[in-house]
Amino acid sequence: MKKNYGLDWLLFISGLICIVTGLMLDFHLISGGREARLLYRNIHIYSGYFMAVGLLLHLFWHKGWISMATKKILGHKNPPASNH
């Protein structure tokens, strides 16, 4: 439970930072010249890296549930047990 809570916060914060810095860069909302833009660009890139690591951890920790839900959605049933 604690690892999921921490992971949720990592994904939320890194995603929020990535979104905000991306919008600031895209709409040219950064004052301070080239150095400031480079700083925001680096923050944007590294927050994206943290978000990617969090996503991979999330998928790894929930692979059983993802597999089960996918089988249920696609209509796969467990094969019947053999009587041999």
What does this structure look like?
The chain is an all-alpha fold and 84 residues long. Helix content is 79%, strand content 0%. The mean pLDDT is 92. Helix 1 packs antiparallel against helix 2.
Brief account:
With 84 residues, the chain is mainly alpha-helical. Helix content is 79%, strand content 0%. Helix 1 packs antiparallel against helix 2.
Strand content: under 5%
Distance between the termini: 42 Å
- Contiguous runs where pLDDT drops below 50 for at least 5 residues: none
- Structural class, from helix and strand content? mainly alpha
Q: Quick check: average pLDDT?
A: 92
* Helicity level: over 70%
Properties at a glance:
84 residues; mainly alpha; elongated; 3 helices
Topology:
Elements: H1 2-26, H2 33-61, H3 63-74
Helix pairs in contact: 1-2
